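Good morning N.,

You mentioned wanting to compare the apo and holo forms, so I went ahead and generated the holo version with DLL. This is what I fed in:
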Amino acid sequence: MYWEPERECMAREDLEQLQLERLQSTLYRVGTNVPFYKKKFDEIKFNYEGIRSLDDLRRLPFTEKQDLRDNYPYGLFAVPLRDVVRVHSSSGTSGQATVVGYSRNDIKNWSNLAARVITAAGVTKNDVIQIAFGYGLFTGGFGLHYGAETVGTSVIPISAGNTKRQIQIMQDFKTTALVCTPSYALVMADTMMDMGINPNGLSLRYGLFGGEPWSEGMRQEIHQKLGIIATDNYGLSEVMGPGVAGECLECNGLHINEDHFILEILNPETLEPVPEGEVGELVITTLTKEAFPMIRYRTRDLTRFIPGPCGCGRTLKRMQRVMGRSDDMLIIKGVNVFPMQIEKVLFEVEETEPHYQIIVDRENHADKITVKVEVMESIFFDQMKKQRQVIDTIKSRLASELGLSVDVKLVEEKSLERFEGKAKRVIDRREL
Ligand code: DLL
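and this is what came out, ligand included:
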């Protein structure tokens, strides 16, 4: 049930003391070994002795994605390359790629934290786990792979893609736990239907999903279609990869591995902490990373802390599922719209399939959103009247959720693009 109970159920006071000690030593190491931080610390005349409490962290400057780009490839590493045993990298689809590195000890910690997340999600050494995240420069595959091996689970390192083969192997190898993005899990469910395979006849019991935002409605959909317990786990390559936070079987927020990371939730404009329990931007400081420590990294991910204790007994603080990134926020006629708000509404409408696309255009200087959503075959082909009704329902629910009128188009089942990794739901044509 717990992987490291002495840490996961630690008394708050002891945890904070440990965080403080680890923070002091991290700051000393980066200030000594990384010219980028040394310069920043000198600028504010930062004195290491001055860090007496965790609140003192707030005096330090932020690190941003651009800093990683400017220091490409190895400029922010805090150890010489001979002590680095692994590098990963972001794809660079939204600009110059970034590179992160791990020492032997970092890999040990990462494996342990991924093992925590896997254990919290119900998986034990008796399970057979199919890792359908990409292996390679992306951290998803290797991160969870090492975690699963640490737990002692039988690992099938299949990587992403080739969906029919995934299902064949799931059936033949008696997979009990599936690891991938939530959108890919739904693609697998559809493919099973096409192959005439009943998910209830498989051995699958658990699904560990992450790497992209997903709604509670999507969790229910996966649960119904695959008959599994679906948990959420969160991480990002800049601070480690998967293993930063993960849900337990209470399925009510993600426990943060606070002995290895300090998470702040700040108002993205003022950069001051939001009042307890309110939504803001997650800012992360690593406490144990040797090769690639990060001080106050601005993730752009939006979430909130969940107050109060959790039924599972872990004392590690919880955060709510990440609702999206501030850079994914669309501003339409001055109204802020998050793709997750649209997903939430679509999943509440019975006739829709869980596949959609959000298209943003600019017509006559005005922004316009069109939501394309797949609907059941029977509705798409036969019933004009029913189609109108579904469109009207979605439109009116979206209008009340967003405060904005949105165009809705019903499209045929399987007509929208499918994704094996992170889904790309928004097409913003305004930039073209
Ligand atoms: O996606 C690490 C990961 C892999 C986490 C597999 C969990 C499972 P990156 O490619 O660097 O790393 O992308 C990180 O993805 O800043 C979030 O915006 C988003 N993200 C990751 N997990 C979640 C999640 C991996 N559970 C970026 N919910 C992050 C919402 C997520 N968004």
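The first helix runs from residue 5 to 8.

Happy to go through it together on a call whenever suits you.

Best,
F.
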